[in-house]
């Protein structure tokens, strides 16, 4: 009887650990979705990098900007930051937009101004420049 209970406990532990897999030592933010990439020689080719299988796992959740998790269809993710340096761009809480993007208010301010600059050249012609790309 004890052996059966122990077996059931181990089985439950194994199933629960596989249902929400994570890559050891890798934060969700340091992973990328590679579910669209075929496996070749026990690795994956992603943007010029070869990702070994031990840096991948099936995820059944997506992590939101506030750190909470949302259940999603199972997909393969890879810990890309173990292979190349990653830089995290952080966003203050009061600047977070509903789509999990960050805003410093610059975009809203630019919408209020005319982004075109007219310059009169020495020969009298007027050139118009778009401030965000031309200058």
Automatic annotation (TrEMBL):
Any one GO molecular-function label of the UniProt entry: G protein-coupled peptide receptor activity
Pinpoint the Methuselah N-terminal domain residues.
26-134
Q: Where in the cell is it found?
A: Cell membrane
- Keyword match ATP-binding: no
Q: Where is the signal peptide?
A: 1-21
Which keywords does this Swiss-Prot/TrEMBL entry list? Cell membrane, Disulfide bond, G-protein coupled receptor, Glycoprotein, Membrane, Receptor, Signal, Transducer, Transmembrane, Transmembrane helix
- Quote the PANTHER family the UniProt record gives: G-PROTEIN COUPLED RECEPTOR MTH-RELATED
Name the UniProt record assigns to this protein: Methuselah N-terminal domain-containing protein
Q: Which classification does the entry list for the species?
A: Eukaryota, Metazoa, Ecdysozoa, Arthropoda, Hexapoda
